Amino acid sequence: MDLQKYFSGDLPPRDHFVSILRHWEQARSDSMAFSFTDGEESEESLSYAELWDEVRGLAGYLQGRCGIRPGDRVLLLYPPGLDFVVSLFAVFAAGAIAVPAFPPRRNRKASRIRSIVLDADARWALSTSSVIEQLSGPDLHEDLVGVQLLGTDSPDHRDGSYWRCPRLRSDALGVLQYTSGSTGSPKGVMLTHENLIANSELILHAFQPDQFIVGASWLPTYHDMGLIGGVVMPMFMGRPNVLMSPMAFLQRPARWLQVVSKYNVTVSGGPNFAYQLCVDKIDDDEVAGLDLSSWEIAFNGAEPIRASTLDAFTQRFSKLGFRATSHLPCYGMAETTLIVTGGPKDNGADMKRPVLTAFDGPSLDNKTVRAPVDPDSARELVGCGRVLPGERIEIVDPDTRQLMPTGSIGEIWVQSPSVGRGYWQRREESNKTFAAMTSDKQGPFLRTGDLGFLHEGQLFVSGRLKDMIIVRGVNRYPQDIEETVERASDVVQAGSVAAFAMTDSDREQLVIVAETIRRRDLDWDDHLQSIRRAVTAEHDLPPDAVYLVRNSSVPKTSSGKIQRHACLHAVRDNELKIVAQWIRGEESSLQPSALQGETMMKAAAGSSGLNAPADPVIIDAIETHVRRVAGERAGQMSTDTNIVLDLGLDSLERLEIARSLERTFGGRFPEQVLDEVETIGQTAAAVERYLSAGARARAEAFLADPNQQLGATDDQINGTNLQDAISSHSIDGNVTRPIRSVTVAPEDDVTQFTEYRRLKATMRQMQLTGCPNPYFTVHDNIVGDTTMIDGETYISFASYNYLGLSGHPEVSTAASDAIAQYGTSVSASRLVSGEKPIHGQLERRIAEWVGVDAAITMVGGHATNETTIGHLVGPEDLILHDALSHNSIVQGALLSGAKRRPFPHNDYEALDRMLTALRHQYRRTLVVIEGVYSMDGDFADVPKFIEIKKRHRCMLMVDEAHSFGTMGKTGHGIAEHFGINPKDVDIWMGTLSKSASSCGGYIAGSHALVELLRYTAPGFVFSVGMPPSQVAAAIASLDVLEREPERVERLRHNSQLFLSLCRKAGLDTGDSGGTPVVPVITGNSLVALRLSNRLKKDAINVQPILYPAVDESAARLRFFITSEHSEEQIRFTVDRTQFHYNELQGIPATSLAETG
């Protein structure tokens, strides 16, 4: 696979991640590698040099002091943070195998960790000192018998002198990635360094990143998407990644979007539920002022992807700059390292990402693929991307192992260089899953267990062959949950429980159906409650429905195997023989057991150090918050009520409660507390300990009035973005009548402006490239064909001194003489006392030069467009401008308040269609085009635009900033070039800073137009007049040009020579049409920046044009050609440009001399 275009010639080694880290440590030592943020203010980061120093020190300690050897399995039990990143690469650097897992919660058993330890035969477990202390406690230590624990955040655990680079090969195991489904018998996927690198390459091809890549991830690093996407892939790319804890996101989803905006993130994503959570839980005031326009890739995977979620997210956040085309659904799993299919980012001109296709629902249920028979039968599926380079995907009959014909649904089988080596120490299971052969002996393939089909190049996933339960991106094996249910109640019939996922209300729900033994007069509520508690406690997934059914009524095969899909259909069709049931959202008499609650309270309080306070007011406020989330599940509560086990709230619901408590009481809970607190009493104690002072007063205000339970006190609201909160209080301080006026918080610190933060983020991104800042370079002389920078002479292609008149002796003398006669400034508006004889002289010369009645000059070109457009049209009018129009045109249109619409570049036919549809709706319509477009060097077919403007009775304005003096035989502009009557154009605009070697702008046209502007245009009336020196310089420049028209011919010759040589060299010059503006399009901002930097080392000065000034795919170098450039300078420049560009692209270097 060709990766050069993603690395601009700085391709890392591809053997193992130790050498990759060392490569970036040398190439980008001071650039940021990873940072960790709490999503608010706190942030810590590591550069590549700092990361390598930490990794080498820890790896040496592991080798020399701990005796860890190549191939040893090392458990990584880290909370979110940079310690995990350091330890992962330190384990690699020690030659060992990393086994990421999440540390057990303080008040829960570590059964899953124990299972992983036993399966992996891990000798060491690394984590932070606080977690190690927790793991050493009596409740958890027995689960880790035989495992050495090491707190790696201690500086004492660093000794780089011991480090020896292991003899790693690409096929060495790097990670055991344990699948998230099973607690009883977890399976560790064996991933080599080769797998990790191959999957990183596949992600590159799927995402096709084309900006300065900045990633962000809140996904857990023990999960495949968080580990590979959040840590491994960014290291392979050598690009910065911002990490945040899952808890920070889940508690307040707006933090994800705030990180994207703050750091100009281009790549970030998560499972479908994360996008839905943003839609459901983010308030508008939380994201006011954010900018999501940098977000190029919003990947989505790990669970079923819903078109409704993608659409809702786009609709909700498009006003912040998020684009629908940023959504990138993908498909993958731990067995394939991560990604299998995704993208591509560019689906072609006729396809927009993501791919949404409607199929016939009943046909899909029958495992066939057909177009919808009618709208009622249509079922819309989201395409999960295309097959990536080096992969093969087949749709196979899971029973016969025959390849399925097109239009059929079968099991998805995968061949890919990123497919793992199998399950650790499970040869038989590995052979079945990782080495499957088709009936005609093709293979080996990975059997994914997922059902799907290929349609028009896209993979669609339609279901699961294996009965995996996937909720919020985490897998659960149903048999584990079924075993828990059997143990939870003695009325459940062994071997007769079905646990499965059911889709409802746009999310997956856990449903349990269990047969009961024949017993009468049972209190079924107690048994339903016991089942709910047990499943929630052991799997951290509260059931959405529990059905206890009659004996022998659960569907089974003839061999006695539970038929979970049949159970699902029985639930949907109301065919269960129900004895008792509990369904979330329905009235229930279930109440928590006092004894169970007290036992859990004592156990949890003892470990967390939180005891219930005696203050009943705080308790009442907390119970009110809980009831708003739990609904009917809350029932009757006490301080001992466990909101996890008794009420069955899942992690997102608990975090929703925590978030609302923070709003009421102020402050923020520490993350470890959120993970440990479960009872009402513990929550109250945590409020008093960790949130703002005055908890009782805030609770009283919250409870005083039902309206206040929506958002309550002045103090609270002053701590958020609400300003005028409650303005009517009684004498005793209680709120009697809330009157709210919602506004945004004041901003008086520029450093906190979104625009400034975005600027600083962009500057940080530029620093990451290792190239010097190309902007605001100091030039020490008159810039013509050459310039002087820091005492060195460069060939200059960064100046629009097109005709070499800036610095011409006659021009300089004229400017000097004007200063002597009129001074350095006219010191007033021309309307008052700033009018000088030479102002009128210049304006008459311009009108004559252009070929119209009159002209008016202003002090700046940008201001000329803003003032004129902003003044001539208003809210009742329409402005249609070329899509590539200069910023000054767009700003003028915005200033005017008129309706503004761009038309496709140079497409007069599209303009004609728009005018046919729109012209009759508006008083005035202004069409704006340019003579020569300053980014692309092409020009409009002005005669066609004149024809259209006459037919539709519009005003036509032509901006001649880059065509005045450069176009036409004698430099009289685009009208001379086409041989048209200049008076057919209503408004001619031009600048004097280019061919006229001065400064300022002009408007030329009819006497009426100029008179209107002279007396009423704010940018002229209320502005000082042009300084005498600049007026005189412009007049003298026109004198020289009129006397020496050969300058225009030399310019034309040089421009055509430069363009022809570039095209001969294979450089992309776009639509440049022989004007003095010639772009060399690199298609990548990083390539453009590096190409400019390399040319500067060859004493050639040319500026890069980067995103967002142009689209990323249109990033370029822009060459300004002058009449004074020599043929030798031009040939040398094109030759070096070709050489360096090819080298950056990985193309064998050639030169013009070699190509003839």
TrEMBL record:
CDD domains: FAAL, KBL_like. Residues 613-691 form the Carrier domain. The keyword Lipid metabolism applies. One of its GO terms (cellular component) is plasma membrane. Keywords: Fatty acid metabolism, Ligase, Lipid metabolism, Membrane, Transmembrane, Transmembrane helix. Pfam families: Aminotran_1_2, AMP-binding, AMP-dom_DIP2-like, PP-binding. GO terms for molecular function: adenylyltransferase activity; ligase activity; pyridoxal phosphate binding. The chain crosses the membrane at residues 84-102. GO terms for biological process: Actinobacterium-type cell wall biogenesis; fatty acid biosynthetic process. Coiled coil: none annotated. Belongs to the ATP-dependent AMP-binding enzyme family. PANTHER family: DISCO-INTERACTING PROTEIN 2, DISCO-INTERACTING PROTEIN 2 DIP2 -RELATED. This is 8-amino-7-oxononanoate synthase/acyl carrier protein. The lineage of its organism: Bacteria, Pseudomonadati, Planctomycetota, Planctomycetia, Pirellulales.
